[in-house]
Structures are given as C-alpha cells and as structure tokens.
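In keeping with the milestone schedule agreed at the kick-off meeting, the structural modelling team has produced records for the first pair of proteins. Each record is given below as a sequence line and a structure-token line. The laboratory manager (R.T.) confirmed that both were archived under the project's standard naming scheme.
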Amino acid sequence: MNILAGKTMFIWKLAVCAGGNPVRLAEMAKDAGISTVIIKAADGIDDQNQGTTSWGGPNLLPAAVDCLRSAGIRAIGWQYIYGANLIGISIAANEARAAIRNIQKYRFDGWIVDPEKQYKRKGAAGWADVYMTALRSACPDVAIGLCSYRFPSLHPEIPWSNFLRRCDFHAPQVYWMQAHNPGDQLRRSYRELMALKSMPFIPVGAAFVEAGWQPTVAEINEFDRSAHELQLAGVSWWEWGENGQGVEYHPEWWAAISAHDWSSSAPPGDSNPPQRVRVRANGTNIRTAPHTQGTDAGDLTAGAIFDVVSETGNYYQVKAFVAKSVVDPD
C-alpha cells in the first residue's frame, strides 16, 4: 500500500495552476522535485476539476493525472466531506460513493479525506463510520489519509477515532496562521495526533495568503527542517494555485520549496525498509546493555523514532538498548 513520501503539493483548482496546462503542470512539479500532487477530485457528492459543477472548473483532471504519471509523479485525490446536509440528513454514503467512483476511475495512488466544521455536529461519529466503512471496503488497498485540524485537543467534536481507525496516515493542516512558530506547531500536532494513532505522519504546511497574513521563506524552511528532525517521510504544502495567490504566484516560496531535499526519503512500498520503533512515554530508559542492570544511558522522549540496529531478547538496540515493552513498531 503506497503511503505519501517526499515532497507533496495540494491543488484546489487546476485551472489556476500552470496556466491550466497539464503538461506544464507535470513539468513544473518534476523540476521542483515534487513526488506527489494531491488534486481535489470531489466536494461532498460532486466531482471537482472535471467540468461537472460551476465550482469544479474545466475538465482538466484526466489529463493532469495522465501527465503527472508520465513524469513519474504520483497522483492522489482529495475530497472535502460534509457528513450531512444543512438539515442534518446524512449524505455520508453518497459522499463515499463519490470517493470510490473517483478512485476507481483515475486509479489514484491514495485518497485524502478532509472533514472540518461540518463534522462538529450531532451525528458526526455515525456519518464518519458510514463513509469510512464504505470507502475502505471498496478500496482496501488504497492508502487513505486524514487531513483535518492540526490540534485534536482544540477540536474534540471531530470523531477522530471513527476516521483514524480506517486511515493509513495522518495529513494534518498545520497552518500557523497569524503566528510565526511553524516548528513548534508541527511538533505539537505530531504529539497530539500520534497519541490518537501511531502511523505515518505527512503534515501540510502553509504556503498561502489569508486575511493579510502569509508565511515567510524562513518559516517555510523551518517547517521543512522540523519535519526532517522528526524523521517524517515527507511534507505537503497548501497550495499550488490558491486562486492566484499560492506557491506558483510567489517565486520566493516556489524556490524555497523546490530547494528542500527529500531525495533520501524511502520510496512508497519500499520492500525492505529499516525496522523502526516509536517511544511510548517520556522518561523511558535507554541502556548500554540489553538488561535492567545495563548502565542508564539517558531518557527518551515520547514519540521519538529510532531505526533498530539489532535485537536481543526483550530489547532492541537503537543508539543503545531500549526495552521492547516500552516502544511500538513504527
């Protein structure tokens, strides 16, 4: 099952990206070292970027997917979901059918689910179960990511567990709007979401203009650097076009993101990736020998990830030895 890795860019409206030219789109992505492009394929029950609704724009999605694949770039679809209509009648099953239809039609390499404020209403847990059960049943081998708020603690109404139990990776919107601390916000988002479910974490960084705020190049670089420090598989960015204000329209942003190096990231589906473990709790001991009499070599932080060098009995050797009982396979 493919999981997003490397450098990824979101697209809302294809018509405002690369002049609406799919060939140029693929060329730009390849030149920038982008390994995956995530294109909006559905909004609720309606298809997007396929000429099917007034908001969906011209039918550019088929050609865009073909051109990206020809350039060796993965194509992922994403969908904003509502769960129910304005009077609370569930449309979750129909939204799932829209997702399945697009995944099967375009053979997407993955699917991103985006539930936000509409999923703070009564009944949301049931809608999430209906949507995710149908989607996972029809597409068992497609990697599914959850792209919602960055801090679950601030949005407890979202039925996080109902989504996450059938998802394969986190893709939170870590937008540090009206602030200037992307690294701190990324680390907090990582801690909170990994506490809900330990799985690959591919955050979405802020590269857009809104309400007079926009990120600096230094902040964009800090976000990328922090992702590397957390040993993440990759990062995503919102958004390529953003109605003429996204990354493409800010050459300094495009240059910064293009310069970010994710060439060493393990490719999706790597047949022999290193075994990794993740520390469960703060204060976990690490020892110089694989037993409780081994000298204490320090404490580990919850969420820290290590490659396993070897294993002996009930211990893994990472940079020293850590008990298997206090870590989880990553």
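The second protein of the pair:
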Amino acid sequence: MATVYQLAKERSPDGRVRWMRTERPKPGGRWFLDYFDATGRRMREATTATTKAEASSLLRKRESDAARAEALGIANPAGLRMTIAEFLDDVFMPDVRVTLREGTVRSYETFADRIKARFGNRPLRQFTRADVLDYRAEKLRGQKTHRGKLCGKRPAPGTVNREIAFLRAVLYEAFDRELIDRNPAARLKQLPEENTRTRVMSEAEEVKIRALGPEYLNHVLDIATLAGLRRGEILALRRDHVSLDRDLILVSAKSKSHKFREVPITPDLMPTMKRLCEDRVIGKGGANPYLFPDPETGGPMHERKLESAFSRAVERALIRDLHFHDMRRTFSSRLADLGVSLQTIAALLGHGATYVTERYAHLQPETLREAVAKLSKVGRFMADGPTLRTAQA
C-alpha cells in the first residue's frame, strides 16, 4: 500500500543506531514516499516536502503518473514529467563528463546550452520530428538580430550536422532509458557537406612561418609535419608519452580516435623530441610533465594560444587560407607523394578507415604530372612500333 513516512534514529539493544520509520512526525523533517510504479516495482523516494500534506500530494501525483503510464504502455513513468532540460542536466551530461574526452565534453556542453535555450521546458515525450526539422532549419538560416539582420556568418552544414547528431544521441539515451517510446531524430539524413579542402603548406610557406613565429611553434610544426599528430594530441604530449630508446611517440587512447597508437620518431624529429623532453618548466605545482606546458595552470598549453601564434605567423608571412589543421594534410600528402600506401598513412594518422584518409592524402600536381609522363612514354612506344602486348610477347 502506498504511504508517506519519516525516518528517525533508533538504538537497538546491542547499541547499534538504525534509521527506522517513525509514527511521530517531526515538524520540518524530511518526508519519503513508498509506492509501486506502472511495472509493479516498489519505489522508495526522498522528497523535498516538509509537511505530510505536501508529501501526500506528491504521492497522489506519482500514483496518477503510474496509472497513466500503465494505460499508455510506458515502462518508465518518469518520462511523463521529465523535461529536456532536466534530462540533459540530471542524466545525459553527467554521464558524458565521465565517459568522453575533454574536447567532446566542451562541444556537448555548448550544444546542450543551445538545446535548453530553445526547448528546455518541453517535456521529452512531446518532442516531435517537426521540432528537430524546424530547429535544423533555424540553424541553417543563421542567428538574426531583433531587426531581422543576420548576426555573423551562417553555420556550415557540417556544424549543423554535429549539433543535430548530438540531439539524436540525447534522444537515443532517453529511448534506452524507456523515457520515450521512439526517437524523433532517428534516420534523419545529414545535410551534404563540403569536405574537399585540399590546402597544404608548401616548403616555401613553411620556411616563412618558422622564421616569423615563436620558438615553441617551430617545435609544434616539427611534430605536426613529421609525425602527423593532431593539435590536441600534440599539446597533450607528456614526457612519459615519448620513448626515445624505442624512437616512438605514444598517442593516448583519449585522442579523437579513442585508440592508442604508436608513431615513429624520424631522425629529423629526434633532436626536437630530445630537447622537449630535457627542458623542464617549473610552475606552481613543481615540474610540469607536458612538453608544451602552461606554467600558470600546471596543465598543457591551451589550444587557443597555439592557434593564435600560428595565425599571427601566417598573417605576417602574407600567406592566405592556411589553417593549423592543414598540417595534417601536409603530412599525409607528403607521404602520398613519396608513394606511401593509404593503409600506412591511415595507421599513422589514427584513422579507422582509408576513405577518411583519402581527404588528407592529396597528391600534388607535380606528382600527377610525373605519373602521366610515365604513361606518355608507353604511348610513344606504341605509336612508333607494335602494340605493347605484342612487344612484350
């Protein structure tokens, strides 16, 4: 039978103290509920009620939710009253913060704030596919001022896809917890993205950037162009991640690919790695273990500082349309020009599939011309004499 109660300390004959239900309610004390949900499970719930009347009112609401959930065939009655904001704050984001890497968590927190600003008070079960489509359309149109003018640039389709993918993941988690009976964002086609960027850094541009940037930027460029590590992977490197005796950089599984990998240290890169491992920055907490440290925080250098230094050097060198992530493409393209296979490049970059690597391993026009020139030699032989097959025979 459903009931409300309070707990009080009682001492047993052997001297042990236990919390037991009391028949003498204490004014202002905490009240608890005891009832059965729609599936027949016994539920004991602590409340914020301070009077028996408040607790009894909550109990009637829970029983009403259980009856309604049973009539609708809903396994979890909490889904009847939980809003999107409550689910994000109390369920989804706490789990994300302990299971995903820091960079992903920061992106998810931004997405969560935007979702709550738009749909925070909407009950989970009232969220529809039309809401998802309308939200995506709003994002594509861009943010506007109160006068109707566009505020800043419209987001790229890829940016919108990432936010809708986050929303879909949130709703799938609610579905798995039986708070909703379907995911309104399921099987929604992604917007077509433009992923054909082929910009790489030339050797002449590299010389200019190195001459105009700070010393640590040269070390970062060494690792980026000779090992192919991502920006976040470079800044997260610690001394115990570098095995000088084995000539290896050990990339943590906390990287974007969520996979541990070993990247060889080339002879050209070895002097840089030795110097970084020998230099120790002393901060507030003692010696900093990171190769690119922040002496103030004791952690790694912030990504914004590196991006700012790279952008200033590029600007001073009068170079256009060059981003730091293009260093990954530079590394892979140089390997492809040397005839390294896509499978090998994919392993070095930490890609799970070679179709991703194809966007990075862009062959230079000179390499393509050399390949065509080899075919032209065969063409001249065929024009001057018998066919190639006959000649080989």
